[in-house]
């Protein structure tokens, strides 16, 4: 499935427009916002699904790399044992050759030992070739695992949104949403959210206040998205990044998405 598209917003009205043009542009602009929210939600769900799939592929490739590395180690052990056997057989061959001067029977035995030594060398060469092949497989599997891990990151980075001008520079927070399995919470009025909620503010007609969890635990995450062009939606929070606020943060950028992580009572919430 290809990445869901997010349509560009129509031209917004400006104060220099004639009254008739201003009203027409404002109606078209506001009418395009609710469908855009649906498109953004669909894109985030697609990103989450794609990231999960690719993460599974990367895990499978890493498992193959581990198995190949184990096989390479076993093959190397067998190669060393074969080389030791070849060295021992060569010693027997030399002893047999020295005894060949005393009796023809000893010479025949020496020839047998020599043949055994040659066979052992051939076996050692075969084991060495197998070890080299297993080592090459291990390297290839490792490269595959790193490739798929890179593909997972590129997929999440490239698949969030098609028009970067619609969101603030904090659009990377959508990646955190795909990993944390956030719950989408449409917001049209003041609301209190819980851990792993993604408050999606769509109220363009009035300012909205989003209240964070009352008793958060360290490590808990929330997301708040301003999906309108208003600059006065607020988040109720006492401390951010270790500093006290005046009781709230103002989302003073249109179409901004903010991810917050609770650190401690002393530090408060951290903006990721």
Describe this structure in words.
- By secondary structure, the protein is α/β, with parallel strands linked by helices.
- It has two domains: 1-163; 167-272, Jelly Rolls (Sandwich), CATH 2.60.120.
- The chain is 53% helix and 17% strand.
- It has three helices and eleven strands.
- A hairpin with a 3-residue loop joins β10 and β11.
- α1 (19-99) packs antiparallel against α2 (104-158).
- Decide which structural class fits the backbone: alpha/beta
Q: What is the alpha-carbon Rg in Å?
A: 34 Å
Q: Write the element-wise H/E pattern from the N-terminal end onward.
A: HHHEEEEEEEEEEE
The order of strands across the largest sheet is: 1-3-5-10-11
Q: Domains counted in the coordinates: how many? A: 2
Strand tally is: 11
Give a summary of the structure in a few sentences.
By secondary structure, the protein is an alpha/beta fold.
Layout of strands and helices, then pairs:
Elements: H1 19-99, H2 104-158, H3 173-180, E1 183-187, E2 191-192, E3 197-201, E4 209-211, E5 221-226, E6 233-236, E7 239-240, E8 243-244, E9 248-251, E10 257-264, E11 268-271
Parallel strand pairs: 1-3, 2-4, 3-5, 4-6
Antiparallel strand pairs: 5-10, 6-9, 7-8, 10-11
Short descriptors:
four-stranded mixed β-sheet; 11 strands; alpha/beta; Jelly Rolls; five-stranded mixed β-sheet; 272 residues
């Amino acid at each position: 499935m290809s990445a869901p598209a997010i349509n560009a917003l129509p031209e917004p009205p400006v104060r220099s427009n004639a009254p008739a043009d201003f009203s027409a542009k404002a109606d078209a602009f506001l009418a395009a916002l609710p469908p855009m929210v649906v498109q953004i939600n669909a894109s985030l769900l697609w990103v989450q699904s794609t990231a999960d799939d690719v993460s599974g592929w990367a895990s499978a490739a890493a498992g193959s790399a581990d198995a190949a590395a184990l096989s390479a180690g076993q093959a190397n052990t067998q190669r060393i044992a074969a080389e030791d056997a070849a060295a021992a057989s060569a010693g027997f061959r030399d002893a047999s050759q020295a005894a060949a001067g005393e009796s023809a029977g000893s010479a025949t035995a020496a020839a047998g030992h020599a043949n055994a030594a040659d066979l052992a060398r051939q076996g050692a060469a075969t084991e060495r070739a197998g070890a080299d092949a297993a080592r090459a497989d291990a390297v290839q599997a490792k490269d595959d695992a790193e490739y798929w891990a890179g593909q997972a990151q590129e997929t999440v980075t490239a698949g969030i949104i098609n028009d970067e001008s619609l969101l603030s520079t904090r659009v990377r927070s959508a990646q955190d949403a795909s990993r944390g399995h956030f719950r989408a919470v449409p917001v049209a009025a003041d609301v209190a959210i819980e851990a792993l909620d993604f408050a999606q503010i769509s109220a363009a007609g009035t300012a909205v206040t989003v209240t964070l969890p009352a008793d958060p635990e360290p490590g808990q995450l929330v997301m708040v998205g301003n999906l309108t062009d208003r600059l006065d939606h607020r988040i109720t929070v006492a401390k951010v990044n270790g500093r006290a606020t005046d009781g709230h943060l103002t989302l003073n950028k249109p179409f901004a998405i903010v991810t917050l992580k609770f650190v401690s009572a002393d530090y408060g919430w951290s903006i990721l």
